[in-house]
């Protein structure tokens, strides 16, 4: 059992598994550029911990997206499975 099995996952892995980024390297670059917040707190490290219930704010090329984490994956799956990992929150 790894530490990640204890209810958290690295941010770069979550972004890759949930299909927000094409690779973990791209996810790491997004985080390093200041494009991600967890629960409104800026994140600077790709190894930040993501837990179910966290709210992520993502500054993606297509626009800002706010999502709630609903689940964690063990590997990258298809788009339908990836969409079950999060719920979009409408930004007003």
Considering DSSP H and I runs of 4 or more, what fraction of the residues is helical?
10-25%
Strand order of the largest sheet: 3-2-5-6-7
Give the number of domains.
Answer: 1
DSSP strand (E) fraction? 25-35%
Secondary-structure element series? EHHEEEEEHE
Q: By helix and strand content, what is the structural category? A: alpha+beta
Q: What is the fold named in CATH at topology level?
A: Structural Genomics Hypothetical 15.5 Kd Protein In mrcA-pckA Intergenic Region, Chain A
Work out the helix count.
3
The count of DSSP E runs of length 2 or more, i.e. the number of strands, is 7
Radius of gyration: 12 Å
Q: Which sheet architecture does the biggest sheet show? A: 5 strands, antiparallel
What is the global morphology? Answer: globular
Which blocks of ≥5 consecutive residues have pLDDT under 50? none
User: For the record, what is the CATH homologous superfamily label?
Assistant: RNA-binding S4 domain
CATH class wording = Alpha Beta
Name given to the CATH architecture:
Roll
Structural overview:
By secondary structure, the chain is of the alpha+beta class. The protein is built from 3 helices and 7 strands; from the N terminus they run βααβββββαβ. It has a single domain, classed as Roll (Structural Genomics Hypothetical 15.5 Kd Protein In mrcA-pckA Intergenic Region, Chain A). It has a 5-stranded antiparallel sheet with strand order 3-2-5-6-7, with no helix packed on it. A two-stranded antiparallel ribbon has the order 1-4. Helix 1 packs across helix 2.
């Amino acid at each position: 059992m790894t530490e990640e099995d204890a209810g958290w996952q690295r941010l770069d892995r979550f972004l890759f598994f949930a299909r927000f980024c094409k690779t973990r390297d791209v996810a790491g670059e997004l985080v390093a550029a200041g494009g991600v917040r967890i629960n409104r707190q800026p994140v600077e490290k790709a190894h930040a911990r993501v837990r179910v219930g966290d709210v992520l704010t993502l500054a993606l090329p297509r626009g800002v997206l706010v999502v709630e984490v609903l689940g964690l994956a063990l590997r990258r799956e298809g788009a339908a499975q990836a969409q079950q990992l999060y719920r979009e929150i409408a930004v007003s």
